[in-house]
Write a structure and sequence with these properties.
Radius of gyration: 20 Å
Distance between the termini: 43 Å
Oligomer: single chain
Number of helices: 3
Strand content: under 5%
Structural class: mainly alpha
Number of strands: 0
Order of helices and strands: HHH
Length: 97
């Protein structure tokens, strides 16, 4: 697998815009898979808990773990990209002049 381009460490240019877009699409696909897997695991443990007679609601710990993974992947896929564009550089240069 290709190494991430880490756009936050440099200036986003047209040369790597395609690669960044592909990476973002892959992250969105990963998010959908993690979401589906997390929801499936929560449903399974709640069913096991219910069949076992209830009591202490221990599936909350599985829900918490799934939520952490889902939120982290969602932030990577849909959160701000932190890319520095050429326009950002030019705007900053004009402030210093």
């Amino acid at each position: 697998m290709d190494a991430p381009l880490a756009p936050e460490q440099g200036v986003d240019s047209q040369a790597n815009a395609r690669e960044l877009a592909i990476q973002r699409l892959k992250m969105k696909q990963d998010f959908k898979g993690i979401l589906a897997g997390g929801l499936f695991s929560v449903v399974i443990v709640v069913v096991i808990w219910a069949i076992g007679g209830g009591g202490y609601f221990w599936p909350v710990w599985v829900m918490l773990g799934a939520a952490i993974g889902i939120v982290a992947q969602g932030w990577k896929a849909y959160g701000p990209s932190n890319r520095i564009t050429e326009e950002d550089v030019q705007r900053e240069m004009s402030r210093g002049a």
